[in-house]
Amino acid sequence: MLTVVAFIVALGLLIAVHEYGHYRVAVACGVKVLRFSVGFGKTLYSWKPRKPRPGQDTEFVIGAFPWAAT
User: Fold this and answer.
1) pLDDT (tens digit, 9 = 90+) per residue, 13-43?
2) Most C-beta atoms within 10 A of its C-beta, which of 5, 27, 47, 53?
3) Active-site residue, selected from the candidate residues 12, 15, 16, 19
C-alpha cells in the first residue's frame, strides 16, 4: 500500500513540475497566464504572488484531484 501512495505522490509531483515548465515558457514568451492550477475540481488552496511581475497577475491553485494540471 505504501508503494502505491508513494507512486501517486511522485507522479503528482512530476506532473506539477512538468506543467510549471509550460507556465514559465508561456510567461517568457509574453503570454498572460490568468490561472495556474495543479489538479481539478474544487479549489483547496489558492494564492497570488505578493509582488507580481508587470503584466502577470497569475492565480496559483491546488485542486481537489491533483492528478492533472491545467
Assistant:
1) 888 899 899 999 998 998 999 999 888 889 9
2) 27
3) 19
